[in-house]
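User: Assemble these into one structure.

Assistant: Restating your components, then the assembled model:
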Amino acid sequence: MAPRQVIIHSEREIPGIRLAAQAAARVLDELCAAVRPGMSTLELDELAGERIRATGGGSAFLGYHGFPGQICISLNEEVVHGIGRADRVILPGDLVSLDVGVRLDGFIGDNARTLCAGREPSPGQQALLDATREGLMAGIAAAVNGNFVNDISRAVEQVVVNCGFAVVRDFVGHGCGTALHEAPEVPNFAQRQRGARLQPGMVLAIEPMVNQGTHRVNVDPGDKWTVRTADGALSAHFEHMVLITQDNAEILTWPKTV
Ligand code: MG
């Protein structure tokens, strides 16, 4: 079996990762507050670019493997990696998933949230949002020193499946901190192996992507980025970055302004 490679961040790096994570959390908050029906997703992406620059940092996604946006904006049946477009207008009742990555002084913050634009979510939308958020929080609760990556994966999956929804399997969470994607991967479904042991200094982006219908997804053959549910049913995405400590995980992207 391949060695279980993990990245442990030093005491010297962690303050910088904290600041980048807080910048990403602030931008995500600002963008969630700014989402309005009638806006195009390109307008939202441009606003994201402004707000990211105002932190003193830059987008961690722009140019990553050629990604053309400041942030990822995914509507309704779009799961992740949607690109802002001038001809894509947000409608009342759309589910809007925003994924914000900020690079600040060589450190990375990464977080995501789904909201309903312009009105209260329908009961079905609310159930999907609740299951995804609660799955994330269950994963964070399992992210403790001495546990294994698979404890996080199993905790997320259990909540989501108990709520009657499906976890996306083709995309997973990841280590994060000085690079956007670091070892280890953090799946949102149980594995056969327990994965890496969690230890202080590990920083993980835990990010369940949850579908109303099938777990299966397709990548848009045109833009090669946008991921959609295979059956066209809705999807939601919540993500926090956490630091493994001696005790409970520290949620680095918890917005300190609210
Ligand atoms: Mg991520």
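The radius of gyration is 17 Å.
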